[in-house]
Every structure is written in structure tokens, then in C-alpha cells.
Amino acid sequence: MPHMEELQPANSELSTGWRARLLPLQGPCVAADILVTNMASRLMTVRSATPVAPGIPVRVDQHDAILLGEVIACRQESPGEYALLIEMNESLSGLHSLRKLVTALLGEARDGEPAHPLPQAGKRRRELGRRTGS
Predict the structure, then answer these.
(1) pTM, 2 dp
(2) How far apart are CA 4 and CA 28, in angstroms?
(3) How confident is the model at residue 66, as a pLDDT?
(4) Which CATH architecture has domain 5-93?
(5) What residues contact 114, with CB distance under 8 A and at least 6 apart?
(6) What is the pLDDT of residue 14?
């Protein structure tokens, strides 16, 4: 679950949201810090200091997840603040757990984490192959 925080929007109503990073996947790639204000089903609304044209595919990086989608609408709320509506197409979550698994499978586990025995088994097979001449 993303870190939630209370924020004061321009219209003085309290809202709940979390910070993320938006990266357009076409055109001039300008990454921007965003505030996710709502997420329901496959739609996400965000506030950004950078406008993004509708139809542009984007990547949203948030805590332990990458979301892929497309900007549906962009509206200027006030000078230097834009509201974006993004339709999400794919969600890659649990990236921290996946990173730990890949690290363990490659035998590069950190202290206190189990390393996969495969690299050692591969080394033993090579040594056995040299002894048998194969």
C-alpha cells in the first residue's frame, strides 16, 4: 500500500493522495513528480506541474509498483498545476519481492537472505565434467 498523506489542494478541501513519478513513453521524455489523488478500477487522477498531451503512453512509478497506461485528459487547474486522467493498462506490483527473488536466484543474496544453491551446483557440474573428460 502506498504511503498516504493529507494534502491541502488549491480549492481548500482536504484530500488524500500519494506521491509517484510519471514518465511519458513517447515524445520529449520529461519525468515529473505527481500526486495521485484518486484511483478507481482502471482510472487514475493525478496532479502535476507538467502538462501531458492526451494519447501519450506513460509509466507511473510508485512504491513497489510500476503502472503502465495512457493519458486520457489533461486540464489546467491553476497556473503551473494540471489535472491528468490516466487509464491504466498494466500493473507490475511486488517489485521489491521480485528483486529479492532474482537476487537470490543469481546467488547474490544479502546478509540474512538465503542464496539459491544453483550457482554452486553449476560449479560442481563443471568440475565433475572436467574429471570425467566431457
Answers:
(1) 0.61
(2) 30
(3) 87
(4) Beta Barrel (2.40)
(5) 104
(6) 43
As given in the structure block, the three cell numbers for residue 87 are: 487509464
The better pLDDT of the pair 126, 33 is held by 33
How far, in whole angstroms, is CA 34 from its chain's centroid?
13
- Rounded-to-integer distance, Cα 105 and Cα 101, Å: 6
Contact yes or no for 43/88 (Cβ under 8 A): yes
* Cell numbers given for 99: 528483486
75's grid cell: 486540464
Instruction: Give me the amino acid identity at 20.
Output: A
The residue among 5, 84, 7 whose CA lies nearest residue 45 is 84
Place of cell 563443471: 126
Residues forming CATH 2.40.10.220 domain(s) in the chain: 5-93
Q: Strand, coil or helix: what is 55?
A: coil
**Residues 13-60: tens digit of each pLDDT:** 445 789 999 999 998 878 999 999 999 989 999 999 999 999 999 999
> What's the whole-number mean pLDDT along residues 1-19?
52
